[in-house]
Amino acid sequence: MANLKVTILHDVWEEDNVPEPEPVKVVSAKKGKRRRKKKDPLHDREEIFEALTKLGHEPSYHVLDGKNQSLLALAKCGADLIFNLTESYAGDDTMDKNIAAYLDLLHIPYTGGGPQALYLAQDKSLAKKIFDFHKIKTPDFATSYKGRTDHSHDIEFPLIVKPVSEDGSIGIDNGSVVESVKELMERIHYIHEEFDSPALIEEFIEGREIYAAILGNDNPEVLPLIELDLSKLPKGTPRIAGQDVKFFRDSEAYKVTKSAVAEDLDEETTKKLQGTARAAYRALKLRDYGRIDMRLNKKGEVYVIEANPNPWLASGAEFAMAAKKAEYSYTQMIDKIVELARARGM
Ligand SMILES: Nc1ncnc2c1ncn2[C@@H]1O[C@H](COP(=O)(O)OP(=O)(O)O)[C@@H](O)[C@H]1O
Ligand SMILES: [Mg+2]
Question: Which of 71, 142, 197, 307 lies 20 to 30 angstroms, CA to CA, from 122?
């Protein structure tokens, strides 16, 4: 394996530290967009940098800060490969697909999803329609934007209401699960007001929360399944991975929930979960690595909740946890992702 100049690409955007708009062109963040709050202040990029160094590559960082100069400099960065950790551009997290498309134009190979996967997975409503076509089970749903309904199954309460295209559990809290028309209407209104986004209204699937980490392209490998145990959440609160569970370290919800390898699943259920995850990964054109979030109900039915291209790679996060169980060291996991991207080329 040849040594590669690997540029770790990430974005920064501090809303309260916005640089002067002149003479540099700054693209303003979309109204209502919320910056993602990471669970761990230690970014995965430092761990990835260290792993790349161990592998004999030449890592460096490049930051996209929302200014045109940072895009121009990227074109000249001289990388053999980009490790793409960007999640937004200028605070707009729907722009990750444009960054991937820009790298395509520059003919620089990069890790993870292309613009297609980033687009398809971000629009949860579109993703669900594609799942439906492929007979991949996903909760029945409706979408509503300011009184217009784009699509609706004949759905039944309880329902969960989410922004159609956020991640990091943005907009998901104890008020998301609704039991009545009144609560539903109020929550749809809240999503419109807060995020200027259509509301995705889904049947709430009571059950276990299972994540499948996947590595590969032609024959993707589903790593051992991880479960986020939500059973100890305070009584009377819905069993969901809201923002508090994911990021708010001081909250009760954060403290009583944890992810671990799901050891007690029987063979048939494991196969069903893995097969469903692999199908979802392929249907949305994910590449190199990804994570599929699912729910498993008491009847043993598997529902795909969402697909995540380029999931978080911190050593404590679910993806690395699954890789470790499959006996990849952290460094081997990063090596595999780099090699997959390199072999795929453009
Ligand atoms: N239809 C659903 N049924 C049950 N729980 C759900 C459903 N949709 C979302 N959730 C809960 O909310 C969490 C976040 O939803 P998700 O769509 O994955 O948003 P994000 O993209 O922000 O991670 C899920 O991990 C799950 O716990
Ligand atoms: Mg999720």
Answer: 71
- Give pLDDT tens digits for 83-131: 999 999 998 989 999 999 999 999 999 999 999 999 999 999 999 999 9
- Residue 140 Cβ contacting ligand 1 at under 6 Å: no
Does the C-beta of 162 come closer than 6 Å to ligand 1?
yes
CB of 214 within 6 A of ligand 1: the answer is: no
Query: Which of 157, 169, 173, when mutated, tests ligand 1's pocket best, judged by the most ligand atoms within 8 Å of its CB?
Result: 169
In this prediction the pTM is 0.93
Give how far the C-alpha of residue 193 lies from the chain's centroid of Cα atoms, to the nearest Å: 23
The dotted CATH code for 5-112 is: 3.40.50
Atom 15 in ligand 1: which residue has the minimum CA distance? Answer: 169
> 141-203 sits in which CATH class?
alpha beta
Nearest to 246 by CA among 255, 235, 234, 237: 255
Residue 109 alpha carbon to ligand 1 centre in Å: 32
Give the three-class secondary structure for 290.
Answer: strand
CATH number for 120-124+206-344: choose from 3.30.70.3340, 3.30.470.20, 3.30.200.20, 3.40.50.1010.
Answer: 3.30.470.20
293 lines ligand 1 (CB under 6 A): yes
pLDDT (tens digit per residue) in 176-194 = 999 999 999 999 999 999 9
pLDDT at res. 15: 60
- DSSP letter at 28 equals P
pLDDT, mean of residues 234-256: 93
